[in-house]
Fold this protein.
Amino acid sequence: MSGVDALLEKINGLKNSHVKKLVDARIEEFKQNSGKTSREIFKELCFCILTANFKAEKSIEIQRKIGDCFLTLPISQLTKELKTLGHRYPERRAQYIVEARKYADSLKDIISRFKDASLLREWLVKNIRGIGFKEASHFLRNIGYFDLAIVDFHIINILSKYGLVNRPKTMTRSKYLEIESILRKIANRLNISLAELDLFLWYLETGKVLK
């Protein structure tokens, strides 16, 4: 059995288990996020800024505790809060979040201008410091865009394990898009979205279905 066939078999097994309900619930949550206000969506962007080179689970906890204060705290106080809550890079992340506030009230309008999610991702990467392809894809998935891949080390680990990619030393734009193309082919064979595939792969690697 080839590596891709073995991975497909694993995911098909998850699709026929209790994990499918967990994935479906997350997807429904993301769909609901698409209808939220610009400021609520901005807080989701802040969460994704926090996740860069940091644990998603811990970032969820920090997002929950800081909440609306992402929109209001001065940079010094936000830095202090992130440090107290255990973020690895409190100063830099606070700086990125405060800089991004200029889009807090217009983010939803900006998003609505883009018909193509990949072009919207490019805009986010270009205009919001602290947001790369992974973080932009994560943010867009969490607000209802399901045809972009979140290529993080968990995903790389699984694809490498099944012989589908060589672990890259650095994640360039072209390498990201190359791996996304591989994931899209897998998703198509499973007849699921890239968003669903990401959640199943995350479960394979971590035993959890997070946002």
Q: What stands out?
A: The chain has two domains: 3-31+149-206, 35-142.
